[in-house]
Amino acid sequence: MTVLDRYPHHLLASTLVAGLAFANVAHIHTVGLAVVGVALVFVLGDPRSTVRFTALAVALAAFGWWWGSGRLERLDRSVLSAHVADAGRFEAVVTAPAKVGRYRIRVFGAVRGYEGRRVREPVLLELPLGRSPPQGAVIQGAATVRAPRGPADGFDERTWLRHQGVHVIVRYTAWRQVGRRGGVGGVADRIHAWLGAAIACGVTGERRALLVGIVLGDDGGLSQSTKEHFQASGLYHLLAVSGQNVVLVAAGVLVLAWLVGVARVVGEVGALVGIAAYVLAVGAQPSVVRAGVAGALASIAWLTGRLGDAWYALALGAVVLLGWNPMLVFDPGFELSFAAVGAIFAVAPRVRARLAGYPLPDHLQMAIAVSGACGLVTAPILWFRFGQLPLLTIPANVLAEPAMPIVLTLAFATAALGPVTPAGAAFLSWCNGWVVAYIGGCARLIGSVPGAQITVTNPLAGPAVAVAIALVLGVVWAVVRVRME
């Protein structure tokens, strides 16, 4: 049986992903549609026939290229770029949680009006230090349009913002809140605010910030030292919403449906609604969108009686994200998310098999295999993107990861219990505060070890050290393999 016979849908989804990504290299318009039309003429009968399959693959790649080209041209349009250095009155919507810096508050938003004119454009808002506007707030005030900075100190703000579809920074000198946005965005804001308050009703301070960071992926309330410890220990991925969160949301809805006694079909539909609500609450982070697509496909697969496939779900997650913004292929979050999941699928089982002969408990072997596989595969991305490489990620994850299901289970149970018994919810949240304190302690313990993280300041040293690390890992792997055989 050939690869084409075994994985036809995987290959087709991959060609669509390739077409979307290639739009970053060159744009096409009507030519792409013509290619699609000609190729589809041959798609008659069995799609696994080599000729017809090739034609369909070409059609999907061309369609992805054409669609990606259109999306990129839309994302690259900017009315405010012609008004750099101009000042005036702006009305904008805050579309994400605020990040408080040393001198200013920075938050992503969308301008809705400029000097009485209707303008629709995503921007980065800079606000004076003080109170932060809540997500979804509509603000007005005097501001100046500023161009993002170019490459400096290893960071290119202009390119980073362009990959988010943002081309200017709107710096407010003063602002006031005049309302809140409506529609789907307003629903997402209300879910985000409710969930953030519900899961942390019994904790305050750093524990509350950690709890919100783990469950909602919002690290804005964490101190800089805590963030640095999570980075140095290799545990920063715990502050980005992952598939584990989505799985527990869906599982919680299914368990609740079972306890109430409703049909499984109703439970699966409820799981779809729960996943959609959670994705809305957290926002369009690559990891949560990918996990949301996978979870939704699992429920749809059960409802339709067709088994799902993990690799196919991963590919469709990439299609959804790149279909919205093809430039996400350059986003470190996108790269790390998909690299980590691919490592769990492809590398972790092989590492687990190598550990089978050692006197270690099964759960410890699995923790070592998963953290080792993810650390190995994501190391080059961390190295070349950030010039940093955590060296103690395996012991850090072995210590901290077992607490993650407890944190998420208690958090969602707290949110569900709040409307019924606030006192019980506060007690669960207080207990959860101790669990997140343990995770934070693991990050501080491992992250404060001297040499826990390598940092490169010389850009020429990165490739040399990366090659050296690859050679060392290759030698170690060869030695272990010879000894095992």
From TrEMBL:
Keyword Cell membrane in record: yes
Family annotation (Pfam families): Competence, DUF4131
Domain ComEC/Rec2-related protein residue range list: 214-478
Regions crossing the membrane: 12-44, 50-68, 235-260, 310-330, 336-352, 364-386, 406-428, 435-454, 460-480
UniProt subcellular location: Cell membrane
Topology in the lipid bilayer: Multi-pass membrane protein
InterPro entries linked: ComEC_N, Competence_DNA_uptake, DUF4131
Coiled coil ranges: none
Any one cellular-component term (Gene Ontology): plasma membrane
Keywords (A to Z) from UniProt: Cell membrane, Membrane, Transmembrane, Transmembrane helix
Residue ranges annotated for the DUF4131 domain, each copy included: 32-170
PANTHER family: BETA-LACTAMASE DOMAIN PROTEIN, DNA INTERNALIZATION/COMPETENCE PROTEIN COMEC/REC2
Protein name per UniProt: Unannotated protein
UniProt source species: freshwater metagenome
